[in-house]
Amino acid sequence: MMLSLAAALSMAMAMPMASDGPVKKYDGGWDLYKNDDNCALLRSYAGDTILRIAYYPKEDTARVSVIDGQLKGVVDGASYKFQLYFVNGEKIDKGWGTVNFKGVKFPDLGSGYKFAVSGKTFLADMGKNRLLGIMDGDDVVESLKLDSLSDALVGLEACSLGVG
Description:
Blueprint: H1 2-12, E1 24-26, E2 30-34, E3 39-45, E4 49-56, E5 61-68, E6 79-88, E7 91-93, E8 98-106, E9 110-118, H2 119-127, E10 131-136, E11 139-145, H3 150-160
Keywords: Signal
């Protein structure tokens, strides 16, 4: 079922993903995909939440998508401004500040958001933190654990040497 979710998400987002499935699976539910111009990590969370982090080495960009079947009121294609933060223990890193997001809707997967940021910097922040959060003022939009990510990030970086 994971492959069908991944395939549906990649087709709907116009971000190609290898049709033969992940090139490697990592602890914590992280799957690595290799494409012509990017490598991507994909993880499904309890419920219907999916996090996809695609790294495009040629442009040093990370394109991140969060799809959550429980999100309501998201307008497909609409622009949103949310605060992006990372958490490691009691330490909250709000250094990313406000980031531009786009709304996305998929009939079979739910609604969500996507955004693009500086690739290497974002991946480094992900690697040293335990949680990725998206906030709208004082309201938490998404809060996603990044546990067991370090090995998957090493795989993503190695994969990216062969694309783009």
